[in-house]
Each structure stands twice: as structure tokens, then as C-alpha cells.
Design a protein that fits this description.
single chain; mainly alpha; Arc Repressor Mutant, subunit A; Four Helix Bundle (Hemerythrin (Met), subunit A); two-stranded antiparallel ribbon; 2 strands; DNA-binding; TF_FadR/GntR_C
Length: about 230
């Protein structure tokens, strides 16, 4: 029994370490295709190599990193087909969240959705933090609908799909293409107005189309860069 607390503490340390590495990958601080050197990570995070090694195993099992011959652990580059498959599933789940939110969303919550879209419209530059204002606003738009839907398992499943792909890449896709950015804002507006009108089927359809379009744009981004970072 006396060994249980240390084991629990070690497990918590590994989880915290994995979360810290994941955050750096998701933000782009550690880019896709980058090597994950245990010594460097240990020095950066102020821990020994043991929790780093276990954290990397955890991230590998989740599909965020992979181990390559002669390179060791690297941030995994998703295949375009993986992106399309994941976003196809996400589209249906997010559509369901919209259906559940209809009739539950309040005027204040509708106003918050519109405010997040105002941030996207203004397109403020990154403020030096790990998450840009536009990425935070986009995430909040979707997260608020998930909260209103009131189904924790649904929200967790959507979050798990999102966590399979570095968030900074999605931001780069929009930053690189003003037309896509404008379409993203318009799609958010249509989703918001469908929710305001209590039109469940329209809200589902608008959200589904929005997520499918986002997934296609992301998949094409990876395809265009496949000759430098994608490994089959």
C-alpha cells in the first residue's frame, strides 16, 4: 500500500507531461514532422526522461506522434484521407449538437456566437500567445454549441476528433486563403441564424456543410505539402 501514492503521483506526472507536449504540438510550437528529442523535452519541461518517455508512448497510442526508423519520435503528419474521414464523422456529430441546441439556446448565447464571429471578421493577428484570437474565437463558437447541446459524451467525442490534428494548421489554412476565411464567417452566420430561428434541420445542414468544407480545405492543405512533410 505504501507504494501506491508514488505510483499515482508518477501517473499524474506522465499525464501532465503528455498534456504539455500535446499543447505545444497543437499550437504549432512543435510543428508537424518535427523530431521529439527526449533530452530537449525534459530540459524544457523540467522533468526527467522517464515521464517524457511514458508521455511519448501515450501520445503515440493516441496517434499524435509516431516512431520512425533512424529518427525516433516525430509529430505525425496526418494523411489527407484520414482528415476527410475524421471530419465526415465530426460533421454528423456537430450537426447533432446543433439539433440538440435548438430550443435551448438563449438570446445571450446567440449574442455570444455573433461576437465570436466578429472576432473572426476582424481577423486580429496573434498576440504572442500560443493560441491566436481567431483560433480561440472559432473554438469558442463550436464549444458553446456543444455546451448548449448538453451531452457530455457528444462533446468529448468531437473534442477527441479535433485533438487528432494540430490546431495551428487549421488556423494556417484560413490565414493562407482569404476566400476560405470569408466563407467560414458566412457559414457561422448561417448556423447562428438557423439556431435563432429554431430550425433544427437547417441548423444541422448548415453545420454539417461547414465542417465538411473545413475538412476538405485541411485535407487539401496537407496534400499540397505532401512532397515535403507527408510520408504516405
Amino acid at each position: 500500500m505504501e507504494s501506491d501514492p508514488p505510483r499515482r503521483e508518477q501517473s499524474a506526472l506522465v499525464d501532465d507531461t503528455a498534456a504539455a507536449i500535446r499543447e505545444r504540438i497543437m499550437s504549432g510550437e512543435i510543428p508537424i514532422g518535427a523530431q521529439l528529442r527526449q533530452a530537449d523535452l525534459a530540459a524544457t519541461l523540467g522533468v526527467s526522461r522517464t515521464p517524457i518517455r511514458e508521455a511519448l508512448r501515450q501520445l503515440q497510442s493516441g496517434g499524435l506522434i509516431e516512431v520512425q526508423p533512424r529518427r525516433g519520435a516525430v509529430v505525425r503528419v496526418p494523411a489527407p484521407w484520414e482528415v476527410r474521414e475524421a471530419f465526415e464523422v465530426r460533421a454528423e456529430l456537430e450537426g447533432l449538437a446543433c439539433v440538440r441546441a435548438v430550443g435551448e439556446i438563449s438570446p445571450d448565447q446567440l449574442d455570444e456566437l455573433r461576437r465570436t464571429n466578429d472576432v473572426l471578421r476582424e481577423n486580429p493577428p496573434p498576440d504572442g500567445g500560443r493560441v491566436s484570437p481567431t483560433t480561440a474565437a472559432n473554438d469558442r463558437f463550436h464549444a458553446l454549441i456543444h455546451e448548449i447541446a448538453g451531452n457530455d459524451r457528444l462533446a468529448r467525442t468531437i473534442r477527441d476528433i479535433n485533438d487528432a490534428f494540430p490546431r495551428n494548421v487549421s488556423a494556417l489554412v484560413l490565414e493562407d486563403n482569404p476566400r476560405l476565411r470569408a466563407n467560414n464567417i458566412t457559414q457561422h452566420e448561417r448556423i447562428t441564424e438557423a439556431l435563432a430561428a429554431n430550425d433544427a434541420e437547417l441548423a444541422r445542414r448548415e453545420m454539417r456543410d461547414h465542417v465538411i468544407a473545413a475538412g476538405e480545405a485541411l485535407a487539401r492543405w496537407y496534400e499540397r505539402r505532401s512532397h515535403t512533410v507527408f510520408r504516405g
